[in-house]
Amino acid sequence: MSLANDRPLRFARQYKLQWETAQNAWVLLYPEGLIKLTESAGEILQRIDGQRTATDIISSLQAAFPGADLQQDVSDFLEHAHDKGWIITH
Amino acid sequence: MTKAGSSPTDTTNVPQIKPPLWVNAEITYKCPLHCVFCYNPLNYASTFEKELTTEEWLKALGEARELGAVQLGISGGEPLMRDDAEEIVAEASKMGYYVNLLTSGIGLTEKRIAAFKAGGLDQIQLSFQDSTKEMNDFLSSTRTFDLKLKVARLIKQYDYPMVLNVVLHRLNIDHIEQILEMAEEMQADHVELANSQYYAWALKNREHLMPSREQLEHAEAVCNQFRARLGNKMKLYFVVPDYYQDRPKACMNGWGTVFLNIAPDGLALPCHEARMLPGLEFPNLRDHDVRSIWYESDAFNAYRGDGWMKEPCRSCDEKHKDFGGCRCQAFMLTGDARNADPVCSKSPHHALVTDQVALAQQPRASDDDVRPLIIFRDDGNSRRLS
Fold first, then answer.
1. pLDDT (tens digit, 9 = 90+) per residue, B124-143?
2. Burial letters for A23-46: b for 16+ Cβ neighbours within 10 Å, e otherwise?
3. N or C terminus of chain B: which is more exposed, having fewer CB within 10 Å?
4. Residues in chain B whose beta carbon is closer than 8 A to a beta carbon of chain A?
């Protein structure tokens, strides 16, 4: 299922993003489990706030990391996160 | 005493020990149920007078959180038997734990669930009230069913997914269809149908609890029918008894690697069952902080890595996959926790498991014949067996 670029994104019920000092990483928490995120995955997911769309998130990342062409990678990752059920559109 | 990580002499062994990620807080062993498969220790009643206070729980949870623990189970016994469960959940949630309440639902009023929600509780796992006593009551009584349905509705109303745990065994597994119909009526999102594991009370009752192969096949077939009909609407997980397998489970993902169990009396354990292992002195949270317990105690270091292993584990190419299985099961069945878990077909003691499985294929006695032989988990039996 393709992810709509113009709909706000939020975490699915039960998924929580959290900075873990002990792991020096962003982690995604869910019942009885956690996913330790790479730095770039953390950068992307921390921009999910229930208001921003995929397009907004890409612009925000491009502003933060000028010079890098992020569009495809970010889109792919958001698609992946959506397929995994971590994030949903609403 | 030096604290791990605080002195240069510690640094040689510290990096191999990863911090705990998952804490299971057994806040009380008190329970209104009498489940025949309960994994609480047989002598659980001896903890009643020694339960940690609210402050002691919060101190221990704070220390574990500081080390990096992030998943927290609040369990028991029945955790709702403590009236500070809400406070413990709320404070733990503030600390940054992902908090999961494991309950039979008995005592889960709207007032309490509202307080849990406000305190940040992330998930509720509702277990099916089954002690055979209660199961029969449940299957025949509308009153209990209505009670369960009410709790299920509350869980939904407070926007939690409905996660239902049902422990299966020889005496209830043939009711699988009825159980799943009930789950469907409760609008369960996830249903875990796990066969009882043979520890503690379940080990005492093992011959009455182990299903036959035929029973397992029937149950799995019924599960598959429900899966086919309901798809993702109700996700079903079916777990067979490990005795039916030929490789052991990777118990706790390895001793002292991820999981810290804290018993009601403050005993720190690498798993729910370890209390009964002889020769290990498990530290108490009243006397030690979590850091020294996790990194420095002999008990937590006892079965870390693979240096403790004997043959056939020592030279086995799967030893880093299953860590030789379960230390408690190895001890209970063979008398030595360092032996391979006898579930493994490479274990010289494997017949201890296959003999039990063979026994389970015999024709089933009637419930009336079995009932008097069952040892129910209750305070009287606990004191007697201590």
1. 999 876 555 556 565 555 56
2. bebbbbbbbeebbebeeebbbbbe
3. N
4. 19, 21-22, 66-68, 70-71, 73, 96, 98, 100, 122-123, 159, 161, 163
